[in-house]
Amino acid sequence: MSNELVSIGYENIKDLIYTIRGKQVMFDSDVARLYEYETKRVNEKVKRNIKRFPEDFCFQLTEEEFESSRSQIATLNKPSRGQNLKYLPYVFTEQGISMLSPLLNSEIAIQVSINIMRAFVEMRKFIMSNAPILERLTNVEYKLLEHDKNFDKLFNELQKDENFKQKIFFEGQIYDAYSLIINIVRKAEKKIVIIDNYVDDSVLNMLTKRNEDVEVVILTSEKSNISKLDVQKFNKEYPVLKVAKSNKFHDRFIIIDSEELYHCGASIKDLGKKCFAINKIVDNNIIDKIMRCCI
User: Fold this and answer.
1) Among residues 245, 240, 229, 234, which one has the least CA distance to residue 197?
2) Is 272 within 8 Å of 169 (Cβ atoms)?
3) pLDDT > 90: what percent of the chain?
4) Can you give the pTM of this predicted structure?
5) In the list 163, 197, 264, 277, which could disulfide-bond 221, CB 3.0-4.6 Å?
6) CA dihedral 93, 98, 104, 105 (to 10 degrees)
């Protein structure tokens, strides 16, 4: 008999009992360790005798329950078991463990079973004697959770890129600038117009992130590094892209669905290489004038 496990009394086992779905349960891995079994062997016993284990005796956690249990374990300053599990763990109620113990022919089964039953009894006594306090704590926790949700919702709304009017990026902020352009591109539901005299295939890579069936028109100069072959290859996978040459523009613009206009202080292919700004222009008259120049 393992000296380590013999020393584990019901007081220690209480720390292995958690509340899930309103029931006091133990993880299959903890039960297996106490009985000196492999976890998969314990679960095999259950599956071979499945009629003995209705859902109020033993059940498998959902992903949400598993994540919640991990945070519960972390709160108790214990290592988060099952962090790299290939399957969602099973848990046993007191009745489930009582049904399981005769199936595990272990030398320590009797003493371990007694200690586990005592632990469940002590947990019930603790919960009953502290029910009013636990109920008040639950209500406080619920209210704090609701406040956190409302704060997160407000914070996320404020952080949405469509709310910005101007953003300045400094040298080296390549990813931040790239992410903003991708978010702008993804807003389009019908058409994207890009005006940039120095377009290359890196801009085409960004355009693969757009929504499906959104048409793209690029107005660029003869100095552009984008070729007809680039356009043909792109259109085979991500139609429809049209490229036209124009000498009407000096600055860079992005037009979304003929309704939103963004002015870029640098060529899209050079995002984050030097300090530059992206501005959202909200004047509809300017949008109309830019659109007429594109024709």
Assistant:
1) 245
2) yes
3) 22
4) 0.46
5) 197
6) 160
Residue reference for tokens 């949405």: 160
Q: Which helix (H) or strand (E) holds 23?
A: strand 23-27
- Give the pLDDT confidence of 10-20 residue by residue, as tens digits: 567 777 888 88
**Of 74, 82, 244, 270, residue with least CA distance to 181:** 270
* Collapsed DSSP state (helix, strand, coil) of residue 60: strand
DSSP 82-151: TTT-SSPPEEE-HHHHHHHGGGS--TTHHHHHHHHHHHHHHHHHHHHHTHHHHHHHHHHHHHHHHHHHHH
For residue 34, the one-letter residue type is L
Element (H, E) at 43: helix 39-48
From the CB of residue 85, how many other CB atoms can be counted at a distance below 10 Å? 11
Helix (H) or strand (E) holding 253: strand 252-256
CA distance 197 to 228: 16
CA 109/CA 35 separation, integer angstroms: 6
Helix-helix angle 109-129:131-159, to 10 degrees:
80
Beta strand 215-220 pairing with 241-245: parallel
Q: How confident is the model at residue 192 (pLDDT cuts 50, 70, 90)?
A: very high
Q: Each residue of 96-115: b (16+ CB within 10 Å) or e?
A: bbebbbeebebebbebbbeb
pLDDT in tens, 125-179: 766 666 666 566 556 556 666 655 655 555 555 445 455 677 888 888 888 888 8
Name the strands in the sheet holding 276-281, side by side, starting at the edge strand that comes first in the sequence.
166-169, 276-281, 260-264, 252-256, 191-195, 215-220, 241-245
